[in-house]
């Protein structure tokens, strides 16, 4: 190294060092701030330990509603401890006077990932709770047979333990405003105030469809498109890898569709990966059909960005990452890989599955470029129809069990993005076989096992 007394060069070096220090320090400060906020809230609630607002969230909706619930209580002068369900133990339940549970359901009646340990640890046992008064807000999707299954199971278990319901369980289908209004009304009655915070979702903004290209022409699967959108007003909101967008299609504006963001703000546009959905009668999905077939380039799209804290990197930003997905799930994983490449962190392992390498190897040049540049340490691809025997990403994962254990021992976090049916369940079973179910539940509870599945 050649040293110089040039003041300009020294200032440049000092500036670059300071910038690097800030990049390294930011994740630590965010984690520390979150921990201090939780500790302060717990200390405030100690003056009235009988109130707890507990949430179990998969995509962040239940968490956001829990925060609004706690804010309403605080406005009424009622300190309450805000806690993720996984943080509560038997002593918490038996020591509380009132708990408001806001819980979502994952898939066909299961607990969200972070609540699996609570369900297995407490809801399978007998725990007398005669002193407890509670209420349940259950979030779900009526497209599933076990609508609000976890919320219903929690309510029934609490009743069986002798707990007393403050008011009947409120069930919310696809974030319906009317049902959330019922919860808010009951809450205002409990808190003795009608001056509640604003619970409305952010307004949609006009975005412009700036790019669209089919990624898999000739594929045996449904067409899948890479879309790019930019704000019509020119003001781009901030987001992080792992976040989502909600889009209101003209044919069904009352039900927003969610898509994983496949880009970073530094890209200048929101990138999406949208698979065209075709119904049995040949018609297309209201959102996917419009975005990929009907809307012309330049068309206005009603869009808003939504935080997806359960799938952000946050405290895992400095850990090795195991990224697993299939199909359009590469979108959310691409966002994380972009963030890792930007930060210069190359300890990333991607396991991705699709149909045929010739047609369905999405973002091939980009992935191979990251691998070549040292930003993708390990890449495992599984194309189910490129051999006589069907193989899937969970099969490759099972074969790599020893390597999975090695990465987890080195502090790795696991992110899953893709189809709920087939892939997510198979991957979960393969991970449980490799690590043990209790260990996998612990990873979920501590934020090192995160899923964005649909």
Give helix % range.
25-40%
Strand content: 15-25%
Q: Based on DSSP secondary structure assignment, what is the total number of beta strands?
A: 17
Based on secondary structure, the structural category is: alpha/beta
Main sheet specs: 6 strands, parallel
- Tell the overall outline: globular
Question: Which regions are unreliable across 5 or more consecutive residues at pLDDT < 50?
Answer: 19-23, 44-48
Terminal-residue CA separation: 53 Å
Average residue pLDDT: 89
Report the C-alpha radius of gyration, rounded.
23 Å
The number of distinct helices, counting runs of at least 4 residues, comes to 14
List the helices and strands and how they pair.
Elements: H1 7-45, E1 51-56, H2 61-75, E2 81-84, H3 90-95, E3 98-104, H4 116-121, E4 133-140, H5 149-160, E5 164-165, E6 170-173, H6 177-191, E7 205-214, E8 224-231, E9 244-249, E10 252-260, E11 270-275, H7 286-294, E12 300-306, E13 321-326, H8 330-343, E14 348-354, H9 357-360, H10 364-372, E15 378-383, H11 393-399, H12 401-409, E16 413-418, H13 420-435, H14 437-445, E17 449-453
Parallel strand pairs: 1-2, 1-3, 3-4, 4-5, 4-6, 13-14, 13-16, 14-15, 16-17
Antiparallel strand pairs: 7-8, 7-12, 8-11, 9-10, 9-12
């Amino acid at each position: 190294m050649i040293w110089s007394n040039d003041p300009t060069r020294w200032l440049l070096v000092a500036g670059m060092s300071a910038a690097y220090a800030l990049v390294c320090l930011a994740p630590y400060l965010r984690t520390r701030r979150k921990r201090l906020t939780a500790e302060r809230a717990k200390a405030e609630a100690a003056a009235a330990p009988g109130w707890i607002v507990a949430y179990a969230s998969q995509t962040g909706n239940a968490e956001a509603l829990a925060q609004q619930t706690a804010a309403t209580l605080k406005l009424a002068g009622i300190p309450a401890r805000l806690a993720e369900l996984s943080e509560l133990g038997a002593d918490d339940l038996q020591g509380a006077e009132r708990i408001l549970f806001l819980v979502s359901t994952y898939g066909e009646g299961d607990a969200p990932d972070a609540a699996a340990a609570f369900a297995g640890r407490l809801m399978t046992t007998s725990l007398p709770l005669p002193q407890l008064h509670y209420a349940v807000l259950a979030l779900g999707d009526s497209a599933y047979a076990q609508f609000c299954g976890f919320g219903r199971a929690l309510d029934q278990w609490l009743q069986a333990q002798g707990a007393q319901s403050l008011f009947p369980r409120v069930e919310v289908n696809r974030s319906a405003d009317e049902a959330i209004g019922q919860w808010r009304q009951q809450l205002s009655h409990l808190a003795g105030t009608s001056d509640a915070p604003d619970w409305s979702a952010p307004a949609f903004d006009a975005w412009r469809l700036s790019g669209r290209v089919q990624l898999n022409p000739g594929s045996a699967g449904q067409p899948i498109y890479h879309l790019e959108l930019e704000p019509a007003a020119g003001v781009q909101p901030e987001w992080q890898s792992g976040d989502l967008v909600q889009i209101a299609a003209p044919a069904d504006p009352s039900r927003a569709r969610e898509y994983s963001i496949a880009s970073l703000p530094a890209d200048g546009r929101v990138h999406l990966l949208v698979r065209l959905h075709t119904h049995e009668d040949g018609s297309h999905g209201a959102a996917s059909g419009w975005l990929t077939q009907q809307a012309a380039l330049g068309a206005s799209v009603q869009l808003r960005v939504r935080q997806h804290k359960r799938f952000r990197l946050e405290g895992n930003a400095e850990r090795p990452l195991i990224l697993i997905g299939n199909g359009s799930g590469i979108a959310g994983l691409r966002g994380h890989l972009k963030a890792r490449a930007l930060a210069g962190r190359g300890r990333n392992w991607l396991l991705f599955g699709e149909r045929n390498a010739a047609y369905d190897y999405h973002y091939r040049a980009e992935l191979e470029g990251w691998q070549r540049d040292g930003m993708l340490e390990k890449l495992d691809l599984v194309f189910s129809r490129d051999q006589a025997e069907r193989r899937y990403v969970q099969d490759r994962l099972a074969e790599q069990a020893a390597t999975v254990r090695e990465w987890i021992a080195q502090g790795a976090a696991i992110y899953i993005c893709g189809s709920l049916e087939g892939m997510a369940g198979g991957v979960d079973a393969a991970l449980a076989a490799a690590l043990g179910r209790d260990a996998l539940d612990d990873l979920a509870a501590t934020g090192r096992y995160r899923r964005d599945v649909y």
